[in-house]
Every structure is written in C-alpha cells, then in structure tokens.
Amino acid sequence: MTCLLVPAVACAARAPAGHKTTGHGHQQPKIGVTRGVRSKVSAARAGMDGGAPPAIAPDAVINLELGDPTMYEAFWREVGERAAVAIPGWSGMSYFSNAQSLCWFLDPEFEREVRRVHRLVGNAAVDDGYHLVVGTGATQLFQAAMYALSPAGAQRPVGVVSPAPYYSSYPPQTDLLLSGFYRWAGDANAFDGDAHIELVCSPNNPDGAIREAVLSSESSKAIHDLVTGHAGARLGWALVKDRDVAKKMVYFVDRSTIGVSKDSQVRAAKILAVVSDAYGPGEDDTRLRLFDFARRRMGERWRVLRASVAATGAFSLPEETAGYCNFTKQTVAAYPAFAWLRCEKAGVEECAEFLRGHSIVARGGEQFGGDARCVRVNMLDRDSVFDVLIQRLSSIT
Amino acid sequence: MTCLLVPAVACAARAPAGHKTTGHGHQQPKIGVTRGVRSKVSAARAGMDGGAPPAIAPDAVINLELGDPTMYEAFWREVGERAAVAIPGWSGMSYFSNAQSLCWFLDPEFEREVRRVHRLVGNAAVDDGYHLVVGTGATQLFQAAMYALSPAGAQRPVGVVSPAPYYSSYPPQTDLLLSGFYRWAGDANAFDGDAHIELVCSPNNPDGAIREAVLSSESSKAIHDLVTGHAGARLGWALVKDRDVAKKMVYFVDRSTIGVSKDSQVRAAKILAVVSDAYGPGEDDTRLRLFDFARRRMGERWRVLRASVAATGAFSLPEETAGYCNFTKQTVAAYPAFAWLRCEKAGVEECAEFLRGHSIVARGGEQFGGDARCVRVNMLDRDSVFDVLIQRLSSIT
C-alpha cells in the first residue's frame, strides 16, 4: 500500500515541514492526517475568526492549546481580491463532482490544483498513477485510511499505535465508535503485536521531531501525518497508489458524509492556484509567495522564542533540526507549527498548570502520552497573541 | 430526549414534505437524517452539475437511482445574483466559528438563518431552548445522533431498526465501522428486543408514506429522517432540546471531522436568507418563492407520472396522501421526492432489471428490505431527464 495524504492548502502551514519531508514523499509514500486540534476555549479567542486582531488585555487568557493557523490571515489579506471566490446560488446542487472519477465527489479543478502544487513543491509523486481522494479534513481521511488498511475478516480489531509523545487526538479519534476493525493500542515503542497500523507524524506533533516508522512487519501499515492551513475549510486530500485502497477510502467518505463540501473544494482550488501562480513565470510580486512568507515568519518566531527561553532559564526546547529542501535546493532549519516547551523550574511537575497561572493555556504533555513537565504551544496564532506569549514567558524566571 | 434535525437548505426539496410534517415538529420533536443517496453512475449524469442540461440521446441511460435535487437549479438560476456569495481568501482560517457556543464550529449567521426559516415555515420549535448542531450533511448528524443516544456502558451494541421498506443506506451507514455502541438490526416490525433506536423516515424513503415510530419502550429512541436540497454543500443541522445530547453530538462531529466546512455554512446562510426574504414584507416577486416553485413543479411531475402510469397499466404507484399544511394553511397533497413504482407485468420479478432493459436506472426494492417488483425513482432530477423518464415509461405496455 503506497499513499500520501496532506490536508488542503496544507502548504500554507507546512511550508517548512513540507520542505523537510520533500524527499520522503518520493522515497516512501505514506498516508497522513491533519494536525488539526481543538480543545477548551478561552475568551481571548472569541470572535477573532477573520476579523482584525483585537487588543489583548494584560490579564486576558491566551489560548495556545490549539493548532489554529491564523498567522496566515495576514498573508491572505495582503494577497487580497485575487484569492477570493464567488459562488452562484445554482451551483453545486448535485452530490456529484465528477461521475466518471473513482472519487466521484472530487472537484476536477481542485484535483488539478492539488497535483499542480505538488509538482511545484516536489513533495509527492502525483504523476505516477496516484489516485486523489478528498475528505472532510485529513481527519476524516485518516479514519478512511484506517478503515481501508484494516485486515479483512480479522478476529479482532487491528492495533493502531504511534510513538509517544503522539498527537493527543489519535486515541479519541481512533476509538470514537469502538470500531470492530481497528482500536487504539498506545505507544508504538511499547507495542509487541504483529499486524498493526502505525501513525507516523513528521515533523511530529507535539515535539517537531522528524520521524519514520519505528515498527515494521509483513502486515504493518504506516499512516503519515502532515499539517494544515485553511483549517475552517475542513478539507484534506490523499494521493493513493493502490486503487483498491483508494476505492475503500472513497467508500468510507461516501458512507460517513456522502462526499465532501463542494464549496470548500471550489475555494481551495482558488487558494492553491494563487499559491502556485506566485512562483510561476512572469510573477515577480514577492508578497504573493506563501512559502517565503511562512518561512520568514516562522523563522522569526522561532528565533524570538528560543531567545526568550534561553534568557529566562525556566524552560527548555528541543534542539533545532535541519534538512535539505528540494524546493529551495538548500539545507534549511525546521520551524515546527508547535513548540514542545519543557519547564525546568524546581517543584513544577505540571507545566500546563504552571502556565495557566500565567494566563497561558497550552496542552499538557501527559495528553500526548509524554512528560507532564512539557506542554505543546501553538506557533501559528496571530502576531498579537504570539507577542503576548513571548512577553509572559520572558517574565517567568 | 427531544430533538429535531433537518438537512441544510432542506426546504428546497422538502417544501411538500415540510408542510406535511409541520405538526410533528412541535408535537413530537425527533432526530432526523438526510435522504441523500448515491450509487452507480450513468453516462447521462456525467458533467451535468451546474451546467445547462445536455440533450439526452435516444439510447442514453438515465440514472434515477439517486436523490440528486438538480430540479432546483432552474429556480436558483432564476433567482440569480442575489443568491451568490463571495468569500475572501483570508476568511475562515480558524477552526472556530463561535468559541462561546456549545457548537463551537457553528457559523452564527448560518444559525440565525436556520432559526429564521423554521419560524417562517413553522415546522420546528426553534425558540424553545433548542440547541443547534451543524454537521457534514445530515448523514453525519444521523451518526452523531446514534452515538449520542446509544446507552452508556451497555453490554452489547444497541439495535438500530426501521420498518421495511427503509432507506437503503441505513444498514451500511449504521454498520460502517462495526461500532461497539450501535448495530443495524433490520425491519422494525420484526424486532422483538427492548432498548433500540428506530429510524423513522417521513415522508418515507422510498415509498413516501407518512410515518410515526412503530416501536416504543422505556428505553426506545426515535430518529426522524427529512430531505435535502443543496446536496453538494454537505450540510445538515439538528435542533436539540437536551443539552447533554447536543454536547455528545458536537463531540462526535469534532472527533470525526473537527467541525464542518465554514464555506458551506456561509453559502447556506445566504441561500436560506434568500428563501426567507422571498416571503417577507415588501417582496412581491413570486419568482423568488422557493416553496411555491417546489410545490408547483412537484405537483406537475406527479400528475404527469400518475397519468402515464395509469395509461400503460404496466405499473402502479402508492395512493396519493394529503394533510394540513401549517405554512399555506390548507390541506395539500404530498408530492414525495421519490416514486415507489411497482411493475404489474406478468413474469417480471425484478422491476429494476426490467427498467434497465429500457435504459432507466432505478434502485430495486429489495435494497430497501422490500419487494423486488418495486423500484425507487428520483423525482427531483432535471426536466430533461424527467421528460425522458415519462416518454420511456409511457412506451411500456
């Protein structure tokens, strides 16, 4: 089974990650799922979607527990009208987008732009007989992939594992319906069974580590996890080499939601076209280059974060990693979408609780099957929120 | 547990059905699911979405196996620009639509228009403390409802039943993941257990019968099934009286797809606003009145179909039913979205196979747990397809 999956408009958030994993796409295609996360909500986030960032009060709680990629609103506001879509009332009334296609609910223009952006970035073998399957977020496709990869006629559900620390939503998403086909089996490093499905998140959520599968057997399958951009569109896609696996994934999406929003596909096609056009011949407006924007902003944020963490001495971060980027043709540092922050203060056993005392909401390490002295902090929120994060971390000594 | 669910822009297709069930909404709120269906595809349907209806060749197969509501494209083309939406590239990037809401991924404007259209039609008690939950089609909400209604800590999955003939997608949708919480248990009339969930489709898919739950016990739950309009939007909603049930349904949608397409919600809000505005004060352009259009067109189609069936003598249809409509304040006939056509010709055991010989694809009765001499025929396709259906049925003697 060979398959690669990335969320729609993923390049927005995954520019660095995308570069890092460029080689893997060709050498070892995988199935992957979104890093989209959601949990309890703070007042600071209320009503911010799409609006201008409000001023944040000195005592306001900032919620960085989630993976909201709102940092990119500034880029798309700069791009302006050319990224907008207009949808007439009469369009998209049918269940069908392409009746002749294996994935009958896949919008043909969206498919063209997905293949085009992969050719541009060079991180997927889109022209090598891969079938494209669209889903309601990569979250649905990750479930479709587990469904398609579960052994037929098994006596018991196949185990689904991932090395700790793993994405905290894997266990509840996998076991949502207590499926007879698959069941969460915990830390891959503690797994001693045979047949299994391993979830390989690279760069890893929460700690940004570059990963390959740690388990392998005749009957093992790997599902790789990439990142997300226009989160509200709830759109993801899979490039699937094996036709039967693709058909099973299409069947799953059909039965669970009878296809995928056409409106989101129309919109994603436009967003992806703007992304690719910006790197095309004759386009020299650098403000339109999403990957450049992402790399520059994420680089700045990581430098600021590492400087403030080094200054306080109260925290630590994973070492910076680097790798060769097939897109920019150079070795680049990784700037993950999340920071895996560890509290080094004596007496602090739970970093999440400690930070909450400083009005910072982050997700505790224990939820990732990891160290409670660590927290996962979203690096993709708006500048106004990120700046407050740095101010507050710097004040902790 | 009191809850009512209808698919987004449902009124487009459910004008007659909506009227028929008006009273039920108040007297006996239920959970309901979409009638969206999909199966194998014929050449006649290829590439028709949103485009002008192509001429249908004399030997072309027409596919009426599905519930595509493309009849309404003509209405929305007439409405024109006022039903269009423009979505800027920077909007909808966050997972959140309303962080303070129980349903955090529900667009507030979409919620306002849903409650407004229910007040207009008078088929749901939207102002009586009901929580609104949005889903990726009512298909997802039907699964969310089964998840929320399944008894906690049960020894085995609760049985899910419906009286035959039942919607043919109920069994495969219910058992998609072989859930430990619920399992398809077949014909409600043959069910002799206690705790169960009954799917009550009214007007019934496939035969248009007006239904109430046939089973009842201390531990029984009913889920009611209404119909769909802008199918490609993959949007449905539930009005849920019980806060805990609503919270469980929100949790299900969160874990299965991390919310619902914002783009579809923005578009549905506009479509619903146009529908309600057309019946508001100061608006006298009758071309904008969707329910009038639906009632007129469906009435014409049913009259033509019944006349041609009566003329050939080769088929029969269920008797026409009627009921009081709270919206028009009069007794009206029901014009179901599907025709449950029975072949009366001697020697024909499978009506679907017989019609396929006349280049008509319809879904065989046995797939609904019913009579193979019956087929379900879509009544909501484009005029060009419906006209060919009538020509071909009339030629069979």
Brief sketch in words of this structure:
By secondary structure, the first copy, chain A, is an alpha/beta fold. Chain A is built from eleven helices and 16 strands.
Would you kindly provide a written description of the structure presented here, covering whatever features stand out?
The structure is a homodimer of 397-residue chains. With 397 residues, chain A is α/β, with parallel strands linked by helices. Chain A is 32% helix and 17% strand. Chain A is built from 11 helices and 16 strands. Chain A has a 4-stranded parallel beta sheet. A 4-stranded antiparallel beta sheet of chain A has the order 10-13-16-15. Chain A has a 3-stranded antiparallel beta sheet with strand order 1-9-4. In chain A, helix 1 (10-20) crosses helix 9 and helix 5 (137-149) packs across helix 7 (243-257). Chain A is globular. The model of chain A is unreliable at 1-50 (pLDDT under 50). The interface between A and B is large, with 84 and 84 residues. Chains A, B: It comes from Triticum turgidum subsp. durum.
Question: What are the salient characteristics of this protein?
Answer:
homodimer, 397 residues, alpha/beta, four-stranded antiparallel β-sheet, disordered N terminus
Query: What's the average pLDDT of chain A?
Result: 86
Rg value of chain A? 21 Å
**What proportion strand of chain A?**
15-25%
The greatest inter-chain interface is formed by: A-B, 84 and 84 residues
Q: Which secondary-structure class do the elements of chain A indicate?
A: alpha/beta
Number of helices of chain A: 11
The biggest beta sheet of chain A reads: 4 strands, parallel
Number of strands of chain A: 16
Low-confidence segments of chain A: 1-50
Oligomer: homodimer
* Biggest sheet strand line-up of chain A: 6-5-7-8
Distance between termini of chain A?
A: 51 Å
Question: Helical content of chain A, roughly?
Answer: 25-40%
Shape of chain A: globular
How would you spell out the order of helices and strands of chain A? EHHEHEHEHEHEEEEHHHEEEEHEEEH
